[in-house]
Amino acid sequence: MILMAGCSLPKTDIESQVNELYDKMPQEERIAQLKSCYMDDFFDEAGNLDTLKCKELMPYGMGHFSQYASQKTMEANVLRDRVAAMQEWLMNHTPNGIPALFHEEVLSGINTRGATIYPQQIGQACSFNPELAELKTLQTGIAMRKMGGVLSLSPMVDVCRIPSFNRLEESYGEDAYLSAVMGTAFVKGLQQGDLKKGVGACSKHYLGYGGGGDADEKEMMEEILMPHEAMIRLAGSKVLMPGYHAVHGTNCVANSEILQDILRGYLGFDGMVVSDYTAIDQLPGYETTMQKAAAAINNGNDVDFPKGENYQYLQEAIDQGLVKPEVLERAVKNVLRHKIRAGLFDENPYLYSNEQIVLDTPEERKTAYEIATQSVVLLENNGILPLKDVKNVLVTGPNANSMWAMCGDYSFPSMSYFWKHNTEDLEHAPIVKLLEGMNARKPEGVNILYSRGCDWTEEIETKYTETGDERAWEYTLLHRKVDSGEVADKKEALGMAKQSDVIIAAMGENVMLCGENRDRQGLRLPGKQEQYVEELLATGKPVVLILFGGRAQVVAGIAERCAAVIQAWYPGEEGGNAVADILYGNVSPSAKLSVSYPNTEVYEPLCYNYSAEKDARVAWPFGYGLSYTTFEYANLSMNNEAATTDKTVTLAFDVTNTGSVKSDEIAQIYLSPADGNTNIRPIQLQGFARVSLAPGETKRVEVAMHVEQFGYYSNEGQRQWNIAPGEYTLKVGASSQDIKLSGNICLQGEKVVKPLREYYFSESVVK
Question: What backbone torsions phi and psi does residue 660 show, to the nearest 5 degrees?
Fold first, then answer.
């Protein structure tokens, strides 16, 4: 089906189009633009659009359709045709023929059956590779646009500083700079620089979800805000979602301080604000749903997801004087403006064509594999890796032969399992398990033995809490554990261990032990996994411990006795091949931690930049990761002085591969005060470069760092960005605690004050 243009508007500027359309809309149509629903509710069992139901339930149209690609399992071309049928009906049977915005989750690929499942965000952050992040979402956006989707509810760029946070896996970790770089790359790839061509990104969860909501103003504005700010100002992100939490005592979805004062007043955001699912329902202190709707829209929220159940009372709120007409006008125009920007009023056959959609192409799988190999962090290695001169290898543990070792939350299998209780036929796209990868990639003469050995948990560990999406506040939804479909025979596994040269122990979490609304009793390995590892260690055979999951898991006490420790996160559909290639040495690990990895259970904010000294609670610091080779840093050259009015300062250094294996090194640039200055953090990431080196090869890294990166936020009657004179230290390191080179620079001149910084990231060139 080829569907052409909808409402024909004059080809003038966007604001003129918005104003003209708004003025001729009946009030019911205006309010409908602020509501959403589920597309599948309007199709019968035969897959035909029920036009009578459309006329009955949405005679004035509909602004949005929620998670349109994941509600029912169906093929991409069928989804595309359903979207086209719905848009055609809206454009021909509603007062002004306004098309809808169809949105979906695209955190690790499109949340739909058969789409590529890329590594989870927390792992991808460890790659320090924004180019791959941009390629991933470019591929995602192209496929989703063909399916009729024009808006994503991704990425999550919360600066997550609480190691126990159950949604940490969706984030890029604890650092503002890294999160901003990766989030900006996500937006650039997804949107393709043109919302009429790409898919719109949504910055979430604004502001401070996952550990920053109660930060002081300086940390909030300098760091917690930074990823959202950079995505909006550098990459043109035009949609934002407030979090479920409260800032300064007020829930974000009805918080005028963050949604109006900071977002629109300070940052100049001119896009659309959408509620998280059921967030308006959760507003405390209001007696009626109408009052909740009024509070949300009055304080800056435009759209009510997922079903508009609060905003259906907006007319009543207007009639009672609780919502002023100009408030409704603001919200509706923000929606209309986004639809025009997305090309929904243009003649654009690219939106809906007869082209056969193919998901999970070889190119997409290749990207998923490359990201996975660059996401896996080698934490410890006594020389056992890469595996050489071994014959019998035991692969064991609950995550050794399971798709749940690979799939993070918001992937289609995880969403289907958790929300829909689906347990069958979930491995689409095909997901390579660790055992499969170990067999497929094994060198000649290697014999792979397998026995599960233990389960994730023997009893249900998921804690029931009323946080996040209230649709998950259901005891039966949370009160279950994953059935592996295998028998865990510990006696069999320990017998095999005694016959083996090395043991690969795949441990960690799964879809029910980590994710939105899912938490457990602690951060040590779930169930009896740790006890099982102890028994494997007792065999005297070298144990390679591989941790799968969405956050750091405390393994102090056993990690020291393992021959190697790997953090694999949720590495996506190609994760089995990627981890196997690292174990066998086909690929050298290169990832660096995007979080501080604790050695004890921590339930409060933890971040490397709180102090330049090592935190005793941290086993492996931010930026840390081992390789199969060694690197040497040398020959630092840099500016010794600059003016506060200069644009950039430069530094350069050499990195040499001093080992015998080809590998990448992630060189990190940190900034510290040198004169007791407390306006900036004791240490703060301000740049990095991936350097690919053959054995014996040297490359020079040249970095242009913006002088604005030396700055800091203050509120002196007005919010401002300051670049102050003083002594600073630039550090080049292999991690935040492994500084290889450093030098001081003096900024001279008067303090420069700007309303906002213009430059956020340094620029690196590897020669």
Answer: -115, 10
- Number of Cβ atoms within 10 Å of the Cβ of 350: 12
**133-147, 261-275, 346-360: the lowest-pLDDT one:** 346-360
In DSSP terms, 378 is beta-bridged to 566, 626
List the structure tokens of 16: 């003129």
Partnered with residue 156 across adjacent β-strands are: 204
The rounded distance, in Å, linking the Cα atoms of 764 and 411 is 33
**Section 472-481 average pLDDT:** 76
Q: Identify the CA nearest to 622 among candidates 456, 765, 733.
A: 733
What is the pLDDT, as a whole number, of residue 11? 46
Provide the β-strand partners of residue 597.
620
C-alpha–C-alpha distance, residues 5 and 376, integer Å: 46
> How big is the CA angle at 732 (ends 220 and 680), to the nearest 5 degrees?
30
Contact by Cβ (8 Å): 747, 725? yes
Name the E strands within 2-152: 36-37, 64-65, 101-104, 151-152
Cα distance between residue 406 and residue 544, in whole Å: 18
User: Is pLDDT above 60 for 428?
Assistant: yes
Tokens of 681: 């953090």
| One-letter amino acid for residue 333 of the chain | K
Q: Pick from 577, 589, 588: which is nearest to 439 by CA?
A: 577
* Collapsed DSSP state (helix, strand, coil) of residue 78: helix
d(CA 147, CA 189): 17
Query: Of how many residues is the chain composed?
Result: 767
> What tokens were used for 206?
């604004």
The CA-based angle 331-334-337, given to 5 degrees, is 150
Neighbouring C-beta atoms of residue 696, cutoff 10 Å:
10
Closest to 308 measured CA to CA, from 100, 36, 71: 36
8 A C-beta contact, residue 120 and residue 170: yes
The SS3 assignment for 565 reads: strand
671 three-class SS:
strand
Range 12-19 contact pairs with CB under 8 angstroms and sequence separation of 24 or more? 14/337, 14/340, 14/341, 15/337, 17/336, 17/340, 17/345, 18/333, 18/336, 18/337, 18/340, 19/333
What's the CA gap between 609 and 172, in Å, rounded?
A: 16
The 10s digit of each residue's pLDDT in 332-351 is 999 999 999 999 998 754 45
How would residue 12 be classed by pLDDT, with cut points 50, 70 and 90? low
pLDDT in tens, 225-265: 999 999 999 999 999 999 999 999 999 999 999 999 999 99
Cβ proximity of 629 and 695 under 8 Å: yes
AA letter at 428: H
Provide CB contacts within 8 A for 194, sequence distance 6+.
none
